[in-house]
Amino acid sequence: MVLRSVRSIPILVYLGLILIPIWLAVERLMDVTGSSPFSAILSLSDHPLGSEALYFSFIQAILSAILTIAIGLPIAWWLGRHQWKHLNIIRAALTLPFVTPTIVAAMGFLALFKTGGPIDSIGIDLRFESGFIGWLSSTTGIENSGHIIALLLAHAWFNLALVIRFVEPRIATIPPRFEESIRLLPIGRTRLNRARYFWWPMLRTSIGSAFMFTFIFSFTSFALVRWLAPDMWTLEALMAVEGGAAGIPNYRTEASLLVLGGATLQGIILLFALGLAGYWEQKKAVSNDIVSETFARKTAGEPSRVARIGVSLSLIFALAPLISMLLSSVRIRDRTNESYRWSTEAWDIALTGDLTYVSALEALSNSIVYAIACMFVSVLLGYAVASSIHAFESKGKKKTAMAIDLLSMLPLALSGVMVGLGVLLGVLKVWPELFQWYGLPVIPHAMLTTPFVIRILLPTLRSLDSSYDETAAMLGYSNFQRFTKVRIPLMKSSLVVAATLSIAFSLGEFGASWILLRSGSWDTLPILVDQLMARPKYFELVEPVAMATASLLMMVTFVLFVITERFREHQGGGF
Amino acid sequence: MTIEIQSLTLSYGENIILSKCNLHLSEGEILVVLGPSGCGKTTLLRAIAGFVKPDSGTIHLNGKILNELQPEQRNIGMLFQRPVLFPHKDVLGNILFAYRKKKERKMQEVDEIMKDMGIYEMKSQTIETLSGGEAQRVVLARALLTNPELLLLDEPLSSLDLDVRRQLAMEIRTTLKSKSIAAIHVTHDHEEAEIIGDRIIHWNELNLLESE
Lengths: 575, 212
Description:
The complex is a heterodimer of chains A (575) and B (212).
Chain A: H1 2-33, H2 37-42, H3 50-81, H4 87-99, H5 102-113, H6 118-121, H7 131-140, H8 145-173, H9 176-183, H10 191-219, H11 223-228, H12 235-242, H13 253-286, H14 293-300, H15 305-328, E1 331-333, E2 340-342, H16 345-352, H17 360-394, H18 398-409, H19 416-430, H20 442-463, H21 466-474, H22 479-490, H23 492-508, H24 511-516, H25 525-534, H26 542-567
Helix pairs in contact in A: 1-13, 1-17, 1-19, 3-8, 3-10, 3-12, 3-15, 4-8, 4-15, 5-15, 5-26, 8-10, 10-13, 12-13, 15-26, 16-26, 17-18, 17-20, 17-23, 19-20, 20-23, 21-22, 23-26, 25-26
Chain B: E1 3-12, E2 15-25, E3 30-34, H1 41-49, E4 56-61, E5 64-65, E6 76-79, H2 91-96, H3 107-117, H4 132-145, E7 150-154, H5 162-178, E8 182-187, H6 190-196, E9 199-202, H7 206-211
Parallel strand pairs in B: 3-8, 3-9, 6-7, 7-8
Antiparallel strand pairs in B: 1-2, 1-4, 4-5
Helix pairs in contact in B: 3-4, 5-6
């Protein structure tokens, strides 16, 4: 009984951390609007931009998911079917976009599409929509089509890794004898038939999961929408902008209604999408047998010329925005004569902070402090919750374990902006002194990262053989000694992956920080990039300074990514 | 007296595994419990080790009652069916796991026992390079270094080849006898039981024999 109570503590702390801010925010918004969350959904159309934001959120998320699958599927196919030299490096390069902070991705695409940038120089003007893109806009009647194309491409770039991580290992581990057998049957004589009757049933759950996760991330995208499609509104972007006016009695009730209804609807949509993705993931896990990747690849052999070209192009696609951003930080445009010069002035200004309240180094140190604090909270709490779930499972309390497991996934249906608003409207309105606390951003960061930590650590705990623990007990080791000398070393890889991912996520977190960080001296690197880009560009170094700051963030993330990749086990796909 | 088990009863729900089981073991004696797979032999050992809690009955070891003690407080060693070696340590690291603190280590004793078990040359090898027999030798050496009052052997030889199994069975007996360590060995193999045991009892006779 005592043990059960002890196990419940981390679960209660975790649920409290997630639910209390959200509950307080919802309660406040209900007070201010006199409306329930569900009736607020119906009032979304009362806001001048509500319906448009909802429509655009759906359309762009669906199109982004379709485009991501269209680009990612052939790459996953080529990678999964053939023996590649340096496969791990190719995989890592294609995964890099997914761990790139969204503000860095936005800067990368802005650098790629800007006037005089690589895409503009081949005659495709997505920014000012002249030439071909202008013709496309006028022919189709779609306003801002250049911006929308840029946004969809950026979402496809960002989520490409999802398709590769979900689908490629599946293709690589299906026993070759299956395909060989179907080729000998009348139904499998044509490629189309094999695709229809063999590959599609084999891959549809993985493709479905990748589609749903891309939809979720595109639906809640904020930094990319803010910078690549500034004239368009998604629910996430609209809630972020209107959130500052929400929750104040007798003041702009439509803003409070929008936040209440928008967050409720978005939560329902994300929960549904997550449920579907989870269901497909589960189906994938129980389906037929697999062989080792090496065996399947050996059977398919060396990559064809088309595969080599395709994978090379995908590598260019994955790295181009980042390289372009780095170059834009040292390639300074002369505003008077359209010429360029190469200089590191922008880096000097970024590091000294001449244009901003804090320098890039100070913002980096803020980011690192928040990230390390977030890592400690999320890893400790995530481990405690995961081991409580595992303990319930081991004791045969499967239903309790499943219920907690499902609850632990609840925060995955919360976006950065929703969490930021939850803390702003919930905790801060009840306890305003917290606004003065330097560590404030750690709360939303930990809320967002802890579910990922649980998802990483729980499978590892489940796979740990209990005989290690029992043997250590037989050798006289106490519970604590077994924890430090057996469990921690055996879980080292997963703990390092969870910790570095949590640091990387916190470093790049934009939505919640954008809402909560009001004091300039606490600015994080992503917020500094946003502030720099929002400045008027009369001074030609403003944009390069923003690019330099974003490049610094990218470099730190890259180092963390390399650490994570060293410890990640390339088996089975998924995150 | 080494171990005295009285009226030990243990069940999983409706399924009764041990029913008023009685057992006595003298100092330095090696008892073999012979029985088919799945009869509950392992559960008996796990109850003595403290991994499962009996419904009723008492377990005494050298005069002290074990029932309320945690496994790590019982001073019992155990060898599992599959040798449990920690993958983050090499052979020597696994053996040194017998000592909870660095300052407790007695390296001369370690070297001696490794030589006795024929694994001295393997001390810096990783555990993946060991054969099944070598791995069980490492586990046995580690267990012996803790000076257990009782050693529980849960079919540790069952996954080995016949020749290795015979040889290791003899080595285990010789080692335990030389150190006067009492042991309960469970197995389904008659030959193995004959080699190792001072005394053999059949699972279905366990209660009858011991209570007589």
